[in-house]
Backbone:
């Protein structure tokens, strides 16, 4: 009696893997869309995981598996509003120049783009009564990420020898982070009525004066 024929191990085909990926993305999109609608119509308290799952036509455990919590969903809403193709293009263009003056002008343009895009979502969250501790935690994480992401720009200024005398690397990071933050944008644009362009022009000039030789 001969040896039995060994059957090859069954592997997932590429198209099956791609299909699973598309299905996962579609599920994520439905959950986010449902959350946005509920936040707008029912407020934060009405945007329960159960309501989201029902509106998105997915199982409750699926919502938790994808986002972990309501805070995770809020973070996704903010990211989608902020970090779109326009943002990615600006970041790529900024990375293609070593000129310190141009890099800081790009930083001002990126800050304007981010704040302009995020304003409507912040308004939606504020109007929907997002719980303060959860909103504060979300903001804290986003600010920590922004601070870390800006390190490379300060490294460019330091390496090129263009960092303003008397301003060390740590102080430069703090200045860049503070000036490009949402607080100044809110005060100038939302409260004092500046145009976004005027804010960008002022920010670019102020960054250059504060950080460059």
Residues:
């Amino acid at each position: 009696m001969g040896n039995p024929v060994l059957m090859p191990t069954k592997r997932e085909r590429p198209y099956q893997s791609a299909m699973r990926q598309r299905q996962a993305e579609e599920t994520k999109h439905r959950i986010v869309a449902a959350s946005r609608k509920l936040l707008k119509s029912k407020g934060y308290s009405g945007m329960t995981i159960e309501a989201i799952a029902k509106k998105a036509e997915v199982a409750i455990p699926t919502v938790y598996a994808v986002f972990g919590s309501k805070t995770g969903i809020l973070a996704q809403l903010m990211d989608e509003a902020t970090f779109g193709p326009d943002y990615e293009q600006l970041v790529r263009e900024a990375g293609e120049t070593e000129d310190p003056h141009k890099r800081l002008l790009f930083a001002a343009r990126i800050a304007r783009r981010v704040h302009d895009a995020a304003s409507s979502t912040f308004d939606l969250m504020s109007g929907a009564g997002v719980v303060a501790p959860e909103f504060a935690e979300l903001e804290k994480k986003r600010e920590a990420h922004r601070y870390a992401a800006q390190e490379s720009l300060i490294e460019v200024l330091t390496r090129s020898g263009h960092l303003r005398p008397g301003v060390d690397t740590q102080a430069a990071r703090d200045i860049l982070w503070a000036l490009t933050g949402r607080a100044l944008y809110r005060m100038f644009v939302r409260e004092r009525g500046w145009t976004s362009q005027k804010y960008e022009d002022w920010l670019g000039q102020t960054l250059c004066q504060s950080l460059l030789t």
About this structure: The CA atoms of residues 63 and 69 lie 8 Å apart. DSSP finds eleven helices and no strands in the chain. The chain has a mean pLDDT of 87.
